[in-house]
Amino acid sequence: MSGSSIGDAVLSPETAPDALAGFTVGVTATRRREEFGALLERRGARVLSAPAIRLVPLAEDADLLAATRRSLERPVDDVVVTTGVGFRGWMAAAEGWGLSSDLGDHLAGARLLTRGPKARGAVRAAGLNDHWTPATESCAEVKDYLLAQDLRGRRIAVQQHGEPLTDFVADLRGAGAEVIVIPVYRWLPYRDPSPLRRLITQTVSGSVDAVAFTSAPAVHAMLNAARAEGAEDALLAAFAGPVVAACVGPVTAGPLADRGVPTLQPDRARLGALARVLARHLPAQSVTRLEAGGHRLEIRGHAVVVDGELRPLPPAPMAVLKRLADKPGHVVSRADLRTVLPGSAVRDSAEHAVEMAVTRLRRALGPAGIVETVVKRGYRLACRYEGAR
Prior knowledge:
By secondary structure, the chain is α/β, with parallel strands linked by helices. It is built from 15 helices and 19 strands. The termini are close together.
């Protein structure tokens, strides 16, 4: 399915302002989070910002300065440039330390292996020549390229971006190379952990439809935070079930793939492409469409579209609606409905809690006759089921 539909209009995810209307997306990014959040909100999504990590300022990073000075001690044979922003940051930091001229001369005499087009562009923008770029844009192919050569005695600088390339560096050293790790943009946990903790709780409860990741360190940070709360298994189960783990590329998805968690990825590792793939996937895979009481319904994450009109629903009425839609046209008992209500909704008696949720659901839906009461038995949707598409 190439678009989503509200009412009779067919929408293109790339342009539709409401392709993600009714869906909630958690965003863990720190860098460019406002830009990415705007891309999602422009398509109608409710965005929950929960920065997972923060950057160590380059000018204050003693480890980066020490690694730069070490690389300047003797000629470097190869330089692995993993990211464009990381390489530009390294050059900018060197300029701040008064080392940019020495570093530029050193790099000009080395083979510069760039992981992808952005890294290659940054190298060329610095007036340097790139030697080789893998077709897959992967560090694994760069490593294989190097290991196919005799590395004994070679000095290789590896520019990291956030996550340590532990195996990469170990394999090069095992082949006899002297490896200098350039730790550009090291990540630390975000100063205020409460937004990420809330997002973990909302993900486990199914209150969000997707969580978007733009870096592998952010994935690790969320998993580590969940582990500290005793919720890592529940978080992984949510990602393996109703909640989409959307990753900007395979490197970002790596920590989840290692745990067998399926991920949604765009064809190109770009923020715009990630927003577009979410706008295609959620309306296509996470919407239940049916007809009830003569009205067309689209049940989304936190809203229902009734005859083309988007109607947001509170958690308890939405939980009831989704449970009724699991058995369209069939009676669902009050006891059954009570089991799906959020904890805060069942402080009163079971019967009263369900009745209140159904009343609020009917009020939010608008037209009468969508939810029917079956005396002494429960409730049902007066519908012809079309299924999820």
